[in-house]
Amino acid sequence: MRQWQTLVKKELLGNFRDRKWIWVPIVLILLAVMDPVSNYYLPQILDAVGGLPDGAIYEMPQVTGIDAITMSISQLSSLGILIFVLISMGTIAGERKSGIAELILVKPVSYTAYIMSKWTALLALVLVSYIVSMLFAWYYIGMLYEFIPIGDFLLLLFFYGLWFILVVTLSIFYNTVFRSPGLVAFSTIATIIVLSVVTSMFGQKLNYSPSNLSNHALHYLQTGDISGALIGSAVTTISICALLLVWSIYIFQTKEHAS
Amino acid sequence: MMSILSVTGLRKEYKNMTAVRGVDFSLPEGKCIALIGPNGAGKTTILRILAGLLKQTDGAVTFSGKETNADIRKFIGYLPQYPVFPSWMTAREFLLFSGEIAGLTKEEAARRAEDLAEQVGITNALDKRISDFSGGMKQRLGIAQAIIHSPQLLLLDEPVSSLDPIGRRDVLTLLERLKKEMTILFSTHILNDAEEVCDELLLLHDGEINEAGSMEALREKYQTSVIEVEFQENRQRYLEKLKQLPGITACTLERQIIKIPVADIAQARKEIFQAAAEENWPIIGFNLNRASLEDLFMKAVKK
Ligand SMILES: Nc1ncnc2c1ncn2[C@@H]1O[C@H](COP(=O)(O)OP(=O)(O)OP(=O)(O)O)[C@@H](O)[C@H]1O
Ligand SMILES: [Mg+2]
């Protein structure tokens, strides 16, 4: 436990020193608020660039708070995930490739503590950035469109957050498998894409798939009832994360740690 | 003699080659042992296996009576050949970190960090970022982190090869001091370094240990000396005469000096002096050269 703390502290300090704690939240905030805000100002923007051609009738569709937060989520689900993969792809693989891991793992460090510290530190950065960016989105959406009830919003925040935990865990898993950060990033993204495609192809059968988390959560916002599918997806996601972590530690134990 | 670590039948195969071909040795407690070998001999591979960073293909490493698969990392300090540090840390932060993950409390680690910085001579740079360190400073920091938890066995992979003469001197002096507290195994391809601080040698070549033993025993074993005689004139003639003497098998004339490699110095000297006295040879120089360890190294490697 003390080892884990020491290792987490080192990770947090490292992420702080190379400014990740600054730029990741900022980029996430931009991603989350960009679409709702630009959508709101669309008429003015169109006017400013000369307006619509004569005769064209443009009717602003009525955008609800839920529509707006859906825009934020779709940005986070694509570019947001890309950023999370980028910041996590070298967390173990890079350390092993460079040789830093050699100095750490030659000390009597438990492999479990090592992996879990990487996971924890990464998760802290990802979740804080995610929560802050969503809070910004919630606030702007409230100002520009309508406020989403705070209870509903927190539920969305929680269930959709699980999806990011899975992304981080996947990346940690591939970090223990491969020694090349590029390969880690590729495999993580490929896995997410395959999961999404398969889920949308077999939507009915794979209702509990992790990539349905955002759909189910948004559905809850619209209807107000927590469906079994939402809980199902959440349980699946948490189980997969736990399994991946155990598997990562196992793989790591069987690996050689010299560069 | 108690041995702190013994290795039997150690083999290491990489994908397409065998780097270590079944070596046996043991490290006597409290000694300084040099693992000497040319580039590619397998020194780094062996040290990494002992440090638990690589898994041997075959063979056993036993740490003074402990189970073969026990976690022996607590008792080992290790400095890689090319250490890479988290360069965004300061030296102090890194030493604290190393100490704490090795099981020291915060206070102990802090005290050790100060103490070791002093010992290795980086006190002034303790709060500088490691990214600003020179190669020599990094090497010193590397030694400090390796001994922060007071290990029983210290493994150093070429600790002085990359240092300038002053740095080399400092590190060798440091090793001399550390020898009193722990067993040291260090690899090098420079014999002089080994000769200076080591009690024992392991001569590694092509993944095999060709020769092992104490410094004196090895010197004795490979001892051949060269008698150098210088004549005022007629060198060629005396060369022939020398060749006739009993106990002398070969001699050569190199740059005006006749060189006679001999096994039994006393016998050869007697013969030469006798002949010289009888025939009044015009000798102007007589020198006895003991074989250097370097020659020993070449000999053992070529075996
Ligand atoms: N990861 C690896 N994969 C394949 N071959 C390797 C690997 N590491 C080392 N080797 C090979 O094993 C042999 C021994 O290498 P090792 O690094 O142990 O030698 P060394 O004695 O430390 O050499 P040097 O003095 O150059 O450091 C070399 O021929 C090297 O090419
Ligand atoms: Mg080497």
UniProtKB/TrEMBL annotation, chain A:
Keywords: Membrane, Transmembrane, Transmembrane helix. GO terms for cellular component: plasma membrane. GO terms for molecular function: ABC-type transporter activity. The chain crosses the membrane at residues 21-42, 68-87, 119-141, 153-174, 183-206, 226-252. It comes from the Bacteria. Pfam families: ABC2_membrane_2. PANTHER family: ABC TRANSPORTER PERMEASE. This is Membrane protein.
